[in-house]
């Protein structure tokens, strides 16, 4: 949402919009590659270290929001650092799947690509304002996080299945909204923050699909 007191930028031309799309998705691709590097480097790491790297990644993400308005170069550097830290944080989980059921990694990867491509294309192309859907998805995500915490302490029948399906529904809406923001943005300097949002959509969808495909 834009602040009413914000400086208005002229709409991007078609060439500039294409440049923003290419730059953003290029940043997503590099961040994903650095995520894979982090996951490889942390393959022998314990879950306790994973949590520490997750907290560090969250701190870097907060720093990106402040850096984006001051230095695009710093924001991009923090984005790449965020990718590595998230790879280290998720590495124990990926290592677990790789050692117990490696084929679900490929299944989840392929399904994630189709999921993001489908809902991303819808969000980028639709003229319908998805802001209201994004607000609902945000609060639904908060509720899902609470539900996930409850699942740690309470055994709910099919709880993990419910969690994964609800999560995918929520991130379908968030993915579409993030790609709509990518089309509507009027400031090309927003590319690093948009890339971070889309990367988080991809990562969460991938982890939810991993959980779903691994149920058997």
Structure explained in plain terms:
The chain is mostly helical. Helices cover 80% and strands 0% of the residues. The chain contains seven helices and no strands. It has helices at residues 14-41, 47-67, 72-100, 103-125, 131-153, 159-184, 191-213. Helix 4 (103-125) crosses helix 7. The radius of gyration is 18 Å and the shape is globular. Mean pLDDT is 88; it is low at 1-11.
Instruction: Please mark out the parts with pLDDT under 50 across 5 or more consecutive residues, or reply none.
Output: 1-11
Number of strands: 0
What general form does the structure show? globular
Order of helices and strands: HHHHHHH
The termini sit apart by: 42 Å
Helix coverage percent: over 70%
Briefly, what is this?
The chain has helices at residues 14-41, 47-67, 72-100, 103-125, 131-153, 159-184, 191-213. It is mostly helical and 216 residues long.
SSE topology sketch:
Blueprint: H1 14-41, H2 47-67, H3 72-100, H4 103-125, H5 131-153, H6 159-184, H7 191-213
Helix pairs in contact: 1-3, 1-7, 2-3, 3-7, 4-6, 4-7, 5-6, 6-7
